[in-house]
Amino acid sequence: MKTANKFVLKPLNCIVSALLLGTTSYAIAADEQPQTETKAQNDIELIQVTGFRSSLNKSLATKRFEVNTTESIAAEDIGKFPDLNIAESLQRIPGVAISREGGEGRQITLRGLGPAFTRTTLNGMEVPASTDGTDSGGGVNGGRAFDFNIFASELFNRVDIQKTPTAATEEGGIAGTVDMYSARPFDSTGFHVAASAQAGYNDLTEEVDPRMVFMISNTFADDTIGALFSVAKSERTVRQEGFGTVRWTTPVLDGGGIYADTSNTEVIGTPNTGECEFEGQTVDAVNCLYTPRLPRPDFFGNEQDRLGFTGSLQYAPNDDLVLTLDTLHSTLDNDRTMYNFFEMFRNTFSEITPESITVAENGKQIQAATFNGVKSRVESRQQISKTKFKQYVFSAKYHLSDYLRLDAMVGTAESDARSEQYRYNMTNNTPHRVSMDFGTTNNTAVMNYDYDTLDANSFDLADGRLRATDVLRENDTAKIDLSYEMDMMNIKGGIAYNDRAVNYDESQINGFPDQDSATGFSQLLPYDDFGAGYDGTLSPFIVADFDAINSQLLVKEWVPRSAQSWKVEEQTMAAYIESNFEYEISDMLLRTNAGVRYVKTETTSTGFIQTDPVTIENSYDNVLPVLNLALDATEDVIVRLGLSKTMTRPSLSSLNPGNPSFSYLNGTVSAGNPFLDPFTSTNTDFGVEWYFAEESLLAATAFYKDIGSFIKSDSEVKLVDPAYLPFIDNDPQYDPSSALDPRTTPYTHFVPVNGQGTVIKGLELIYQQPFSFLPGLLKNMGLVSNYTYVSAGEITGLSENSYNFTLYYEVEDYGMRASVNKRDNYITDYTGNNGNAEEATTGPTHFDLSAFYNINENVTVTFEAINLTDEYERLYTTGDGTLNLPREYNHTGRQFFLGIRYNL
């Protein structure tokens, strides 16, 4: 006799309690081990395909048979992930958008929420990995956001994204959780060897870089013992060229005074600025026109070396016990050089006379102009960085009886990132004439100067800024889960402990000897083809000679900046209980997952106020109920509902209680707040999935997130606290000749605070199908596509629309696929700077291509083409909120990889 439990939806806590305590005649055990097939999967007819289609089918099976909303990217074969970069694989998942650095995917945005809102795990434990960036401060990521470029994709067997949690899912990801799994020997028993070698070519650098992978795996003693080892090595030469402005401003908004003299300025066009006032007086309208602060050609170069090792040992003496030890070691070396040559309008408008100005059509910005009284500067930076990561995870799965199973895990991980930056300024302090013309593209200005910009005698060498940062991130984890299974019933419970810490230290080299002339310490930009492939005109310029300066002028002795050091420790203890049932309702099957998770968080933040140490403690707890329903309405249609409460903790770096960080050129002060509460969100997901044919899916999912409190940056314009003035005067980063004087000029002070919440609403659409119903060669083609719409308040990094299409053609011996990925423009800073309402990024469109040819069953030739159209990165500011003012416009070139792969 069939029975059915019927219930009415109540508030989430009540539903969860009812399902946890209730019983049913029909229940099913839900095995949540990521590498174990469910009974339902075993009952499905398996379609034997290889290559990219094999990866798609594995991913589709994972999505279909999970109760919660889960997406997956699976390896095509052992040691063969579908893409060269994990972030670039994840962008094929609906709701995922990525940010790139140097043409390579680095971080992800999920369902409109930035990288810090997505929790990333590796083999079951959180990944505390940090890398450096190309920002002017040479900063290292000390927050919770994960940098996917630290690992080679070949080290991984599968990556899942849980968009709706279960109670067993560790808290921390309001947007979702990314689970990465390295390969294990029991994934595929027997002896296996995989090796590949690729040569990568970039048409901008014109360099050839190697990429190599080797993996070996075997099982012994009747498959009761297994061992796997892999190594991945790659080098990458990056070159990024373009033009920048470091934001636009007006003389009135800049803070350094209005133009020296506008009485004879020739104005072409009509300013549309309204009444232009400065200090209560009406002034010439050109003082309210937006003008580039630091117009400049830019060059960024990077020599990257990535090395990774994984190891896995497994032991299964019987059917009841499996022991696993997973290890991963990775290093990422970056040797960056960054050069730019700019005219200084920032803070110096009062020294400059505009001789002629052509007003843009909108009447609010300059289109072209000639100025007199301007000074120049060349900024040269060398940034040498190394990130070392290691993780050890020991796990056990033990069937204590026919009904009781124990899962346990202990792990430790450490990321140590050091970045040394050598920055030198060469300044021409002789006022001169300069003209700029942005033409019709409004991306790059043609610059002309009335002096020889390649003459080192025109420049001094001063303001050596020599700084190093060390970020050590550690995480220790222990988890125990107990699952009770009887008569097809499953109830699980468990506890989890995490001990996380971030140590941030700075050091510097003191006593750099300024030089009156850059002669002997400079060189022509060491790339004679600079700007050759650029969409615009880039003028060559001289730059610092790092070898000459470092060997002749520098005493390399790093002195700790103890006052800028800080440490944040975080301990969490969590407990959960959940149930998994199946209810037969007429001819339909309802699968349920219900549970509740409790977690307590304690933080200890240590820093310095001036020179005095300070320690602040804080704690909070959260109750996180969750309900997932999956209704198998027919054999091919699944209707899903997810209700949950989730949380994301504040960035550990934002909890720094110590001295603030000063930007003397921009006049800003940034401080931490150790009393920040976490973000919390109440979530609803509703989706329908139609598996209308083999290997096919048509799906729609609507999601709604009500975030109760959002951490925002509170700002106040005021003079710097006089207590910090001695600290500033002794700071080598402070240059009185170019900085805003903190004694007389108010600085904008920023501090993170718990502010008003926001609501995120969105829709995800998926269409995936092989075209096997078509005639002839067309039957070997297929399409994977998705579209995401997200609507929210002021959330940085959110693109309202994004989509991804992959068209593939595959037969047994060869195949190829072409992909296009597009996202809308997105805001990166709502607070703005220098009189701008926002800072934003133009949404890119990327085209990629991949192909393979099987020489025989063991040897395959591969080809990859990335960024086929050489998509440019364009950052901009919005001025008064209505403008589109270029901040950066650059490109990194096309990348091509030709390789050979051996598999046994």
Automatic annotation (TrEMBL):
One Pfam short name: TonB_dep_Rec_b-barrel
UniProtKB keywords: Cell outer membrane, Membrane, Receptor, Signal, TonB box, Transmembrane, Transmembrane beta strand, Transport
TonB-dependent receptor-like beta-barrel domain span: 428-868
Signal peptide from the UniProt entry: 1-29
Subcellular location: Cell outer membrane
The TonB-dependent receptor plug domain, residue ranges: 68-176
Domain of life: Bacteria
One GO cellular component, as annotated: cell outer membrane
PROSITE patterns linked: TONB_DEPENDENT_REC_3
Alphabetized InterPro entries for the sequence: Beta-barrel_TonB, Beta-barrel_TonB_sf, Plug_dom, Plug_dom_sf, TonB-dep_rcpt-like, TonB_rcpt_bac
CDD domains, sorted: ligand_gated_channel
Its membrane topology: Multi-pass membrane protein
Family from the record: Belongs to the TonB-dependent receptor family.
Protein name listed in UniProt: TonB-dependent receptor
Lineage of producing organism: Bacteria, Pseudomonadati, Pseudomonadota, Gammaproteobacteria, Alteromonadales
